[in-house]
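Quick one:
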Amino acid sequence: MNRISATIITLNEEHNIGDCLASLDFTDEIIVVDSGSTDRTEEICRANPKVRFFSQKWLGYGRQKNRAAELARNDLIFNIDADERVSKELNISMKEADTTTFSAARTARENYFGKRWVRHCGWYPDYTTRLYDRRKCSFSERVVHESLEHDGNVTTLAGNLKHFTYADITDYLQRMNRYSSLAAEEMYKSGATTSPANLMLKPLATFIKMYFIRKGFLEGFLGLVLSLLYAQYTFCKYAKLAELSHATTKGS
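Output:
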């Protein structure tokens, strides 16, 4: 059986963390790196005998995940978010995988909006690479939308990772505001610019891609709502980038 350390970064995840931890029985240990929770997250984590709980000032998504991997006792790391769960089939794949044949492994992800598994809009299979050898792989140190950097030797595991993405539209809108700000800051730091055309065309392209090309219309009303919400996210991201650029130009 593979010796795997699971890593989770948390902040006020009392409603998610218990079910997440319960799905990780294939691991030898679970590293939780918390950035200042004020709810019962720490209490729930410390009640699990596999968990090693650490407090860490927020470093950004990529750096925080790399810090968690550094604290692990094993080189084989499985990174999971608190709002995700390992399915029974994926659990078996984790136990049976020949980890000598790859440096990283990806899995399909079931994304849920509320209690509904969304199969279109580009939400499935939504492959994500989470099992990796920390000696060969690490997360990019972006402030948002971090990804695992690897050598290309990646396999695909059977079974899905269940992701309870958003509870409802209110939950989406609250997080969209934060993520669009982080994305705009990341683009601004990289030297990206925008234009009035981007503000009009980029959101439209997002909607067309999700609703028509990725068949969001097959999800009925929810597909329409999601396509419009993501178009709104795209607009906010570029509008905030324009705001940052304008503020800098005005102050110079």
